[in-house]
Structure formats: structure tokens, C-alpha cells
Design a protein that fits this description.
Number of helices of chain B: 9
CATH class of chain A: Alpha Beta
Number of strands of chain A: 4
Mean pLDDT of chain A: 84
Oligomer: heterodimer
Helix content of chain B: over 70%
Number of strands of chain B: 0
Distance between the termini of chain B: 9 Å
Shape of chain B: globular
Order of helices and strands of chain A: EHEHEE
Structural class of chain A: alpha+beta
Structural class of chain B: mainly alpha
Radius of gyration of chain A: 11 Å
Number of domains of chain A: 1
CATH topology of chain A: Translation Initiation Factor IF3
CATH architecture of chain A: 2-Layer Sandwich
Low-confidence stretches of chain A: none
Largest sheet of chain A: 4 strands, mixed
Strand content of chain A: 35-45%
Chain lengths: 75, 226
Amino acid sequence: MKEYTIDCLGEACPVPLMKTEKKINSIEVGDVLIVQIDHSCAMKNVPEWARTQGYNVEIDEVADGEWEVVIEKTK
Amino acid sequence: MSEEIKSIQRSGTRAPRKPKKSQIPYGIALVIVIILIGVALSYKSGNLAMFWIFGIGFGFVLQKSRFCFTASFRDPWITGSTSITKAVLIAFAITTIGFTAIKYGAFVNGLPIPGMNYVVPISFATVVGGILFGTGMVIAGGCASGTLMRVGEGFMMQMLALVFFIVGSLLGAYHFGFWKINFISNGPKVFMPDYFGWFGAVVIQFLIIGCIYVAADLWQKKKMGA
């Protein structure tokens, strides 16, 4: 199991999601992807997208207004 | 949603968490300041105080609900998710009831119908404006309300967007007269109650919203399978 991090701090809404979509396709099943975001809109659409894909998702508020979305590629 | 009960295993290399400061005292102080400004404004004019409270209330709801008009138009294309699109449609349906009540109330009492100067002609300019605004809001990461909300959240890029939003609005307002005379005012003005009656207009509006809602739902099922 490998862990990848993508830094989307300072990126506005659609960018974190598009980077996540791209990255998740290149990693192996069982790997974990951590997306760092600070745009409140991405807080909604990144987890929602990942959940509808059937991945495990956790959200961690690391600081005020800064989140890490942890996605486990389960399939 | 999946059933993610067990926590996802992560390697132990993550940075130690910064200690979070409680923001509750600031929040309480802010509420007091908001109320004081509201009271001060109400001495000047009751309307002003009302705008103040409604504006803050709207902003609060917008921020807490992560409601985003940009996402409602963009996400169907990017991810196929239409959950926000459907939320916006429901909001339209609710405001339809409210607006109809206000307008019809004025109409039956023989008063001038409020908000009629927002019934503007439909023309090719509507389409061009929609494309320009749509492109801009996706690049800027927010429409008007979304940009303002995220400036409040402290998102730096959106402050830049706000500056150019103001520049653009001022420029637009400055030569709006030219466009209005030459392009916009040629189109037909449609106020649905004039054509279908009050009840008919509401029914038709609900039918249109309902059709888009069903289409949005099918779109999500097709694109995401959920």
C-alpha cells in the first residue's frame, strides 16, 4: 500500500477535483490518496465524487479552513 | 454513500497537527458587532438595517450549506454530479411561490407590481452574456455570490477575482446604455402572467423546473451510475 499526496492548496474549485480524478486513475488498488485543499467548494465535490465512485473517504480538518481528503482506492 | 466505518490506514509520516485556536469568542464578538451596526443603521433607515440583516443571513446560509451556483452548472459536465443542480432547482421552485405571492398580492390590491423592471427583453445578448458569465465563473471558481463568500473565507485567489469582478462591473455599467439601446431593447419582453394568467404562469414554471429536475436526475444516473 502506497500513499500519495496532492497539494491543491490555493487551487479554486474544479481544479482539485480534476487533479484527483487524474491521479486516482494512475494509482494501484489499495493505495491511499491524500488531497490537501483549502477551497470550501472542493470540500464538497471531491468527497462526493469519490464516494459515488465507491471509494472510502475521510475528511480531516487539519487547520481552520484547510482540509485533507483521504481517499482509499478500493477497486 | 459507501459504508466507511473503519478508519483508512495512513502511514505515520504526516506532520503533527497545528493546535487549533477556539474561534468562538471571536464569533460572539462578531455577532454583537453585527447587532450594534444593525441597531445603528435602523436609526438611519429601517430598510438599511433590513438589507444588513438579510445580507448577512444570506451569506451565512451560503457559506454553511456550501451552496455554489457555479458548481450547479459546472459539476454536471465535470463529474456528472447534479446534486447541487437539483438544490438550485428546488430553490427556484420555492422562490417562484414567494415571488408569485408578492407580485400577485400587489396585483389584486391594485398596487404597482414590484420588481417589474427586472423583466428584461430576451435577445441574442442573453445568450452571449450567459456564455461570457459562465466561462468567467468557472475560471474564477465562483459566481458573484460565491466569490464574495470565499473572500470572506480568506481565499486569496478569489480576492483577485473580486477586484476584476468590480472592474468588469464598473466598465459594464459605464457603457451599458450603448448595449441596451442597440442590442438588448430589440428583444421581446416576456412576463408570463400576461400570457398565461397568474395560475397558468406558475403551473408552466413548475412544469419547466420539474422537467429540468428529472433530466438532471437522469443525467447523474447515466454519468455516475448513482
